[in-house]
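Figure-free illustration: sequence to structure, shown twice.
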Amino acid sequence: MAKGPRPGHGPLTGVRVVELAGIGPGPFAAMLLADLGADVVRVDRPGGAGIGIDPASDLTNRNKRSVLLDLKSDEGPARVLDLAERADILVEGYRPGVAERLGVGPDACLARNPKLVYGRMTGWGQDGPLAERAGHDIAYLALTGTLSMIGKPDEAPIVPANLVGDYAGGSLYLVVGVLAALQHARAHGEGQVVDAAIVDGAAHLATMIHGMLAAGSWQDRRGTNLLDGGCPFYGTYATSDGGHMAVGPLEGRFYAEFTGLLGLADAFPDRWDLARWDELRAAVTERFLTRTRAEWTEVFDGTDACVAPVLSLTEAPHHPHLAARATFVEHSGLTQPAPAPRFSATPVSVRGGPARPGADTAAVAADWDVPALRPADSPDTP
């Protein structure tokens, strides 16, 4: 018989994480750890992180607590080391060498806590010719070849927001790395530094594509391959009302169902007749332009044709499937993606809204037993 859910807020309940405030993939990685139940304390700097978003709406700071410390002051680094001594994981996203200059680098932290997992999130990595160069998601994708795959063959590469680099190639790899290192630390009593570089992660994401390239089944030109928009039955098509439908019936029986519902089964029975791909694309384009997105959604509803409407960010939470699964939730007046993945024994949830800078300093001082962190005007101060 399956056991019921255990008390707590996820499988990482009891794990303590220090996050040195930054922007982009570092905060998102710390949010993932917080979503999974870790007690994440974000060390915010006076004046904020400099990206201009209202802290009340910054969802990457949900499920966290915040303390306010000036790392350039005499006391700031000492308080971070106090927290690191009591933590399991520390996450920072400075350029190489900055944490060391501030006095909170790996050597200083590991000297206080030899079991600490010190996670470093950068674009270029801790070493290499570009390590100290400024950069953002788009540049990291560009050098790894990943950006070159996205878009039409006769147009410039398309920017995939900052999802592929910052979050997939950065945050997710940092989280995998620090959790793997945490397992090692608990088994062997040995902490370590995790060097998570977006260039490494973005390159690693394309492992299958590199294999296909080596096998001769992928052309090193965007918009000419099975999964990059080159295939007429794997892409998007406009509808009569300006909407779009996403099409992906790669398997034979799914393709047969797709062309049948579209009214093209007899005209294009062989999906691998590459000589007719342009003709097939033109026919599919013409057919989709005859009806609205809602009408085509109804046509393909309940089928295995692998066709779905392309929804906007505001439309997505209302889709019946996503609503049934509670893929999006509302908390603190904000609609947001729910934590993922899901766990049968240790369920996760949005427990708190975005942490306000410094709002939890007194509580963290008490919970983590760092009395020197307590604000001078706190009622708990002796």
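We now fold a second protein in the same way, so the two outputs can be compared directly.
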Amino acid sequence: MGGSELWTILAWVLLWAVLIGATTLVLLRLLRRASVLTQICLVVVATVAVLVAGMVSAFNAMFISARDLEVMWYILATASAVAVALSLMLGAGVSRNAARLVDAARRLGRGETLDNTMDARRGRAPAVSSELAELAQELEASSRSLAESRERETAIETARRELVSWISHDLRTPLASMRAMTEALEDSMAADVPGYYRKIIGQTEQMTAMVNDLLELSKIQAGSLQLRAEPLDLYDLVSDALSDLAPLAAKRGIKLDGGGDRECMAVADGPSLARAIRNILLNAIIYSRPDSDVHVSVGRDNGNAVVAVQDQCGGIPDADLPHLFETGWQKNPARGTTAELQGSYSGAGIGLSMVAGIVKAHGGTVGVTNLDGGCRFALSLPAGSTRDGSPSATTRTSAEYRPGGAS
């Protein structure tokens, strides 16, 4: 074969390749909404067509015998049939898996949870490409994440409704009592007028404490609570809480025992952390048996500052431990308030959830365990420096600490 003949063959092959390629591109554009099977088959047919056109040009230029030309046509036909068959198999697999992914996306949109083990009716074919397999895994992961989000949303909505119901009950009870007492005073039916006044004041203080707790909790959950982080001594906060609640503990015959490190520094917001410590201590006084002890300790554990409160409540059932820091949760739905506790706490079931929010806003943790006939609440906070050379105070919002709300 001479050089001129070779260039002639190459020119014809290039011409056919350009013509068939351009035609294929136009058809692909027109069929861009067709199935993957159709597009794959079109590409394979175009490739085979270029090959056949090139071989025909070569045969005509080489002037081979009729018998040899017939054999070459058989070879081309067989190769073309195999290529088209393989493209059909590949396209069918891709189309089938794409259809399953579309069905999975529809189910995901309907709120169903996808599983990596499909039922027998749908079957499960191996993905024909790593991209489709990765897409299927991402859909399943997204499905699980959405399911968890829906569960959290349902739990939050249920807790919100219960909290509104409980708060309404807790507000209605003292309001009804106050109205009855004021009507008795107005009609001069009260035998003990000063006693009625004291009861009305106590009911008012209880509702004020409830409103303050709700306001504080809403700020924590909204991330709008302003926290002024500065080095402070946790022992001082504990001492103040013990002094504040000592009269209430004495009424119930409970002995408060405080101890631990005389200087235990932490970087925190004093007012909010003092409120958390007071709520934990108040909770221990409320639920401890009369004439028992409540022990408060301050120290360090693994480099963190820890405030621990151990009471004598008789222990908490294991089933109730995960719910202690949920907003509005209380073991006893009656939620009665004794006279000696009125005005000391709201009774709305949000004290411990507020503690969890405050501690988490400071980057710490709070936990509870049963121990020796009672339970032990532990507040763990990042330790700060000592009084000498302490860093300057900084003001942040609780959102910067990413509070998690109730545990």
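Summary for the second example: The first strand starts at residue 226 and ends at 233.
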